[in-house]
Amino acid sequence: MHLRVIGRLGLADAVTVANAAVGFLAVIAATVDVALAARLILFAAVADGLDGVVARRRGSTPAGPYLDSLADVASFGVAPATLVAVVVLDAHAFGVNPLLVGVGVGVAALFVSMAVARLGLYTAYDSESRETVGVPTTLAATVLAAAVLAGYTDPALLVAAAAVFAVLMGSTVTYPDLHAQDALVMGVVQAAVILAPLANAALPALPAWIGEGFAFALLFLACGYLLLGPWFYWGDGL
Question: Domains in the chain, ordered, with CATH?
Fold first, then answer.
């Protein structure tokens, strides 16, 4: 017996599959440490960009688009929804209105459902295009993760943001793909947010606010693309 995936999937597919595993780890981490879960979601976003680079350099396989959407369901659908649900459930332990808990869990479920629907439509209709219809799941997950790391952990705020993203993922708002240089900038900032705790541990003299500062920068960049991208990013970009 041999593994069917050997020889049938390429290097880019391996990165994509690893992305799905990171999404699963983010779900588990959310039950222990929401900040760690948020960083794992951002790590998955970096991997999501990397598999595209590898595919362009080393080629892709027919399975690639399907694997990409399946991995994104885990990393940018289930993981951020779990993050929001855990924040709400943790708040409930401290006396938050049970109605908010029910709404929060329902919104998290809606977020997953809309992410699945959007990714299915993307694979069927948009994967060969340089634009995509509806807010990208990666962008929605990045905003939610960056918000948590920047200190915006109010459960009502996160539930409201997740509800808005659920609607926008199913909308007809069209986003152009990020230009390569802008995607690189976003990836570098994401990496800085991910690595900030390690930098603080290795260099205790570094101010503790540096990591939060990178999170604010990432939130600013992601929200800028979210709000302005559909109208001002076409052509030569912002």
Answer: 11-174 (1.20.120.1760)
